[in-house]
Amino acid sequence: MNKTALFDEHQNLGAKMIDFGGWQMPVQYSSIIEEHKAVRNKAGLFDVSHMGEILITGKNSLSLVQRLMTNDVSKLTKGEVIYTPMCYEDGGIVDDLLVYRTEVDEYLLVVNASNTTKDLRWVKKNAELFEEVEVQDKSDYYSLIALQGPISREIIQPLVEKDISDLKYYNFLESEIAGVKAIVSRTGYTGELGYEIYLEDDDAVTVWNALMEEGSDKGLKPAGLGARDTLRLEKALCLYGNDIDETTNPLEAGLSWTVKFDKDDFNGKSELEKIKENGVQRKLVGFIMKERGIPRHGYDIKIDNEVVGEVTSGSYSPTLDENIGLAYIDKDKALEDTELDICIRKREVKAKIIETPFI
């Protein structure tokens, strides 16, 4: 099983480790709720080095990336980031990812850990259509640390050589942090102010410990994958493998804003145009439980004893002190305030569709 460069630090902090996509990762240190609240109120530090990185370079790098992505990457200038799905020809989602424009003819794709091998294969297959383009798997080169929370800037700025006070959301810069070279990106998966730091594996421990020390008297806590999941769910951010996958398309997943039909051809464009014209058959919606019970991925959802969808993600929300979830529901039933029955084991538990994000 793979280990990140920070594995020993997690063990020293007493983390509970789990297998996550073939990686030994911390699911929690103290408690998921405590870590969740630290990120919402102060700050949390995450090791997300299991994420994959694919570098595309060369004269036709933009043409390749434009073919791969549904969003319009041509709008990026150096130092900017864009969120986008990457689709198959049938409109199914290969992955959802971030694209960084690191140079004029250079793009860094940051992909979900469990999809790295599949994504790399798909990118290379499409690269065969272009000359003067190179695809490299850089996943073993980078460690990735995420500092998230309302006081994250206060913690990170003293360690960063450059001024990041004006660094905008979905922008990044290259700078030294704690004396080592890194990419500091104003991005995250929690819905809070935050930064993601890309650096060489050998430098990961130095930066992690520097951030922990800087935040030690400010309320910073190490946070695991458990809190990362509850944080993203409260903001209704999709998780690949739960809310989106190759059997779902961006339009039904509420990601239509990432599909730019006015740009040149891209994988899945014609199928997605048909879906847009005919209308989606189901929609991803948020719901809140009205009775006791935690909804889990795969649970059936009924209205008037008829199955109309299934849960994709569900958890206790520490911020709301309620149980919440996401689900695909038949489009004619996917209306706000609609009452639902969530089939939890052998009983039906009441829930209601509400507007997202939850907070």
How would you sum up this structure in a few lines?
With 359 residues, this protein is α+β, with helices and mostly antiparallel strands. The chain is built from eight helices and 20 strands.
Supply database-style keywords:
359 residues; alpha+beta; Gyrase A, domain 2; Alpha-Beta Plaits; Elongation Factor Tu (Ef-tu), domain 3; 3 domains; globular
Q: Could you give the order of the helices and strands? A: EHEEHEEHEEEHEEHEEEHEHHEEEEEE
On the 0 to 100 scale, the average pLDDT is 97
Structural class: alpha+beta
What is the top-level CATH class of the largest domain? Alpha Beta
Q: Which outline best applies?
A: globular
Q: Indicate the proportion of strand residues.
A: 35-45%
How many alpha or pi helices?
8
Q: Note poorly predicted spans.
A: none
The Rg value, from CA coordinates, equals 21 Å
- CATH architecture classification name of the largest domain: 2-Layer Sandwich
> Could you tell me the number of beta strands?
20
Predict the CATH topology of the largest domain. Answer: Gyrase A, domain 2
The largest sheet is: 6 strands, mixed
CATH superfamily of the largest domain: Probable tRNA modification gtpase trme, domain 1
Could you explain the architecture of this structure?
There is one protein chain. The chain has 359 residues and is of the alpha+beta class. The protein has three domains: 2-46 and 141-234, Gyrase A, domain 2 (2-Layer Sandwich), CATH 3.30.1360; 52-137, 2-Layer Sandwich (Alpha-Beta Plaits), CATH 3.30.70.1400; 281-354, Elongation Factor Tu (Ef-tu), domain 3 (Beta Barrel), CATH 2.40.30. 20% of the residues lie in helices and 36% in strands. It has eight helices and 20 strands. It has helices spanning 7-12, 32-41, 61-68, 116-127, 152-156, 204-214, 225-234, 269-278, and strands at 2-3, 16-20, 23-28, 43-47, 52-57, 81-87, 93-103, 106-111, 134-137, 142-148, 172-177, 180-185, 194-200, 220-222, 282-289, 300-303, 306-317, 322-330, 339-344, 347-354. The strands form four sheets. The chain has a six-stranded mixed β-sheet with strand order 11-12-13-10-4-14, sandwiched between helices. It has a six-stranded antiparallel beta barrel with strand order 15-18-17-16-19-20. It has a five-stranded antiparallel β-sheet with strand order 6-7-8-5-9, with helices on one face. α2 (32-41) packs across α7. The two termini are 36 Å apart.
